[in-house]
Amino acid sequence: MAGPVSRTIQVGGERPYAVHVGPGVVERLAAHAGEEPGRQVLVVHQRGREELAEQAAQTLRGAGARPLLAAVPDAESAKTAAVLAGLWDTLGEAGFTRSDLVVGIGGGATTDLAGFVAATWLRGVEVVQLPTSLLAVVDAAVGGKTGINTAAGKNLVGAFHPPVEVLCDPAWLTGQARADYVSGLAEVIKCGFIADPVILDLVEADPAGAGDPLADPARTLELVARAVQVKADVVAADLTETSLREILNYGHTFGHAIEQVEDYRWRHGDAVAVGMVFVAELAHRVGLLPAGLLERHRRVLDAVGLPTAYLPGRWEQLRAAMARDKKSRGATLRFVALEGLASPTRLVAPAEEDLVAAYAAVSGAPGRLDRV
Ligand SMILES: NC(=O)c1ccc[n+]([C@@H]2O[C@H](COP(=O)([O-])OP(=O)(O)OC[C@H]3O[C@@H](n4cnc5c(N)ncnc54)[C@H](O)[C@@H]3O)[C@@H](O)[C@H]2O)c1
Ligand SMILES: O=C(O)C(=O)C[C@@H](O)[C@H](O)[C@H](O)COP(=O)(O)O
Ligand SMILES: [Zn+2]
């Protein structure tokens, strides 16, 4: 598949911004150096992404800004109150003002943290996100959901704080371990189920290739752009998740519960993959989802190497974690479910026996439980 090497997706809403995906986009940071000489920039970067952080700092410095690098722990270890407080201290000591900037560099865990530090410092400074994982470019860095985890659960503290720009060079994604990249594919496939079935067709046409960003760079760009477009359309219409935005949470009620029960040793996308099968089972059981579409969930996720099953014997913990899902209202569990392809709806207060049956269906069958 030949095609353009760069794509720009506009995200609408009150404060519109662009997602630029293409070679050399880091240079665009120069435009954020500010009109006043010496704009301070906190470059929050995941450990391991030092080279890119230094490149970003050089670009900013060259344009007159004063970057300050802050390395944060890898993956979910970054999304803690302690790491966040450390960044607040850094901002305070450096005297960051409202005209200064935060840049986030890394996977979704880091962009969530960087976005939240920007959202909270002086009640909000600008943030530019440089996602370096597939999951972060198609999902975490776009849309302005920022936050950290607490002992009670995933992303329980956060804010809606959209970035002013998102920049991703596809070359960054090629550094990811395959299992991490494939985890990001779960969110891409999610977008296929909830809104853009062409994504599913593309993945199903070559599932092994879809899991390798270099197998067909044009297809990689197409999948990224399509998933970002789905997210952009949704968040432009409902930034603060009053209703429509909930569809982006497809598979996350059970998925976040797995992450919590596993103490974040499971990759987010892997957990969401099982979560999508769980809610597809549930929706099929209550008569919403046709059998063929349930089967398609397992087929496409399995084809790219994502897990479709979780361990048995953990229902009590999972059920308790699901009760703390943000879509819950009081004691009422609410799921995003499908009644057809690209036709999301809500499944409210399902019977406990149906929940247990859906759990049995995802914990009885063999699945990939060895990806931790
Ligand atoms: N805010 C949102 O809307 C949103 C959406 C989806 C997911 N999320 C959050 O995003 C996180 C998951 O994102 P993720 O999968 O990117 O996780 P992550 O940030 O933990 O990154 C996954 C792994 O990939 C590595 N990695 C990242 N970029 C790399 C690169 N260029 N080269 C080599 N390794 C690289 C990381 O070091 C890490 O080990 C979760 O915390 C999830 O809750 C947020
Ligand atoms: O952007 C959204 O809205 C999403 O729900 C996207 C999800 O993929 C993402 O994992 C998000 O962080 C989950 O949000 P939460 O509100 O359930 O914590
Ligand atoms: Zn997610």
UniProtKB/TrEMBL annotation:
Domain 3-dehydroquinate synthase N-terminal: start-end pairs: 71-178
Record-listed E.C. numbers: 4.2.3.4
Subcellular location field: Cytoplasm
Recorded metabolic or biological pathway in which this protein acts: Metabolic intermediate biosynthesis; chorismate biosynthesis; chorismate from D-erythrose 4-phosphate and phosphoenolpyruvate: step 2/7
MF annotations from Gene Ontology: 3-dehydroquinate synthase activity; metal ion binding; nucleotide binding
Transmembrane segments: none
Example of a GO cellular component annotation carried by this entry: cytoplasm
Extent of the signal sequence: none
CDD domains xrefs: DHQS
Cofactor: Co(2+); Zn(2+); NAD(+)
Positions that bind NAD(+): 74-79, 108-112, 132-133, 145, 154
Reactions catalysed, as given in the entry: 7-phospho-2-dehydro-3-deoxy-D-arabino-heptonate = 3-dehydroquinate + phosphate
Gene3D superfamilies in alphabetical order: 3.40.50.1970, Dehydroquinate synthase-like - alpha domain (1.20.1090.10)
GO biological process: amino acid biosynthetic process; aromatic amino acid family biosynthetic process; chorismate biosynthetic process
Residues covered by the 3-dehydroquinate synthase C-terminal domain: 184-328
UniProtKB keywords: Amino-acid biosynthesis, Aromatic amino acid biosynthesis, Cobalt, Cytoplasm, Lyase, Metal-binding, NAD, Nucleotide-binding, Zinc
Record's function text: Catalyzes the conversion of 3-deoxy-D-arabino-heptulosonate 7-phosphate (DAHP) to dehydroquinate (DHQ).
Name of the protein in question: 3-dehydroquinate synthase
Species of origin: Serinicoccus hydrothermalis
Gene name of this polypeptide: aroB
